[in-house]
């Protein structure tokens, strides 16, 4: 059986020169790779006590839903601004060139619930930090974060250092 890292395709100079893009779609397109990714992420948090799984659009949905399903937990969506139909709470965060706003339903997290955040990647930690703000604004407690890929050179772990972060694959660079 291949190692999880072998399913990730690395694309040099995308989206710009000097960047190595870590392509998660190659993991998803292989049944064994997808299975190994979910199993590895679950193994990383097997000792974690949590009530609900949260994942951001769109790859957080892909990895978070099977983890929620396998552990009989509810799954909560975090989406881009304007995509959810009921009353929401929102958080805005900075991107390299501009800003973005994410939202979740106001009734999706109950005060005191322990929340696991699941995503495909952590880079600078901006999106993860915004998700944490949303969860805590509703009275939730972030039990931990699990991602498929961590780009350690971008220091996202440092940005959310108060929280447990587990990554299935860690690349030292950017």
UniProtKB/TrEMBL annotation:
One of the GO BP terms on file: adenine salvage
Pathway: Purine metabolism; AMP biosynthesis via salvage pathway; AMP from adenine: step 1/1
Enzyme class: transferase
Compartment list: Cytoplasm
Catalytic reaction list: AMP + diphosphate = 5-phospho-alpha-D-ribose 1-diphosphate + adenine
Alphabetized GO MF terms: adenine binding; adenine phosphoribosyltransferase activity; AMP binding
Stored PANTHER family: ADENINE PHOSPHORIBOSYLTRANSFERASE (PTHR32315)
Entry protein name: Adenine phosphoribosyltransferase
